[in-house]
Prior knowledge:
By secondary structure, this protein is an all-alpha fold. Helices cover 98% and strands 0% of the residues. The longest helix is centred in the middle third of the chain and has 89 residues, at 2-90.
Amino acid sequence: xxxxxxxxxxxxxxxxxxxxxxxxxxxxxxxxxxxxxxxxxxxxxxxxxxxxxxxxxxxxxxxxxxxxxxxxxxxxxxxxxxxxxxxxxxx
Length: 91
């Protein structure tokens, strides 16, 4: 009888070990998933911040280019106006 009692106990221990292994695997997978989610969230936040900064820089650059174009156009208009005025005055 002791032999079958020992076998039963061994089977119970094996079952408990298998259950613990599965539980450990589930916990490990859950932790890995949480860490991957955190990493992806941080990467997304950094990408968003970078895109916002790039957009701000592009806006500033476009604004500066627009101001330079307006100054250039105004200068050309002034020069043309002066020459026209001088031409009309001589005529």
